[in-house]
Amino acid sequence: MYQVVAARHVGIDQMVWQVPGIALTAQAFLLAIGLGPGAGQLARLSSGLLSIAIAFMSVELLMRHRLSAIADAVWLEKFERDQGWEVLHSPLNDRCAQLGVPMPRLARARAYSVWIVGLSTFGLVGLGVVVNALLG
């Protein structure tokens, strides 16, 4: 059972970081349309609304994948402790603290939180494109 959960954890962790990459590609395309000089009102409105939708869907999916990854990591860490094994599935910040590895201030922030803020910002920019299309 441990091997199954560990393999699933690796797969989910990979999916967690695929979401932002794919979302950024879509956002770049949509914002190029929405902010382009020759785009008509309908194109700007559509690209802005799609940008908002993609930002929301990406944040929601990233949160679900991350929650699943955390649940597996917690289960694995508990299993390792219960078996008396070395704990391999603790969070990065905890591992660095245990090993005495200094973490630069910027690296202390959870990458997940940084990406949530970044993806949400793209949604706000999309909202700006929609407002501009409606008022401009």
Give a brief rundown of this model.
With 136 residues, the protein is mostly helical. It has five helices and no strands.
Describe what this molecule looks like in 3D:
With 136 residues, the chain is mainly α. It has one domain. The protein is built from five helices and no strands. It has helices spanning 2-34, 41-83, 92-99, 105-108, 111-135. Helix 1 runs antiparallel to helix 2 (41-83), helix 1 runs parallel beside helix 5 (111-135) and helix 2 (41-83) runs antiparallel to helix 5 (111-135).
Beta-strand percentage range: under 5%
> Please, what is the oligomeric state?
single chain
Q: Tell me, what's the shape?
A: elongated
- Sequence stretches where pLDDT stays below 50 over 5 or more residues: none
- Counted by DSSP, the helix tally is 5
Tags for this model:
single chain; 136 residues; mainly alpha; 5 helices; 0% strand; elongated
Element layout with pairings:
Layout: H1 2-34, H2 41-83, H3 92-99, H4 105-108, H5 111-135
